[in-house]
Amino acid sequence: MNNTSTNVSNHYILDTQDSDLLINISGYTSGIYSVSLVVDGVYRDFKTFTIY
What we know:
Blueprint: E1 2-3, E2 31-39, E3 42-51
Antiparallel strand pairs: 1-2, 2-3
């Protein structure tokens, strides 16, 4: 997950046995963030969202 204004990023490893991952965003500052799904080194999906 990457903050587009500060370029600060966090990486989360997904367990292939799980169907979802809950990320606590309460400590994140307001801003626009991007999330990339990378599988075996290949970008598979990308989403952008805003935290107010």
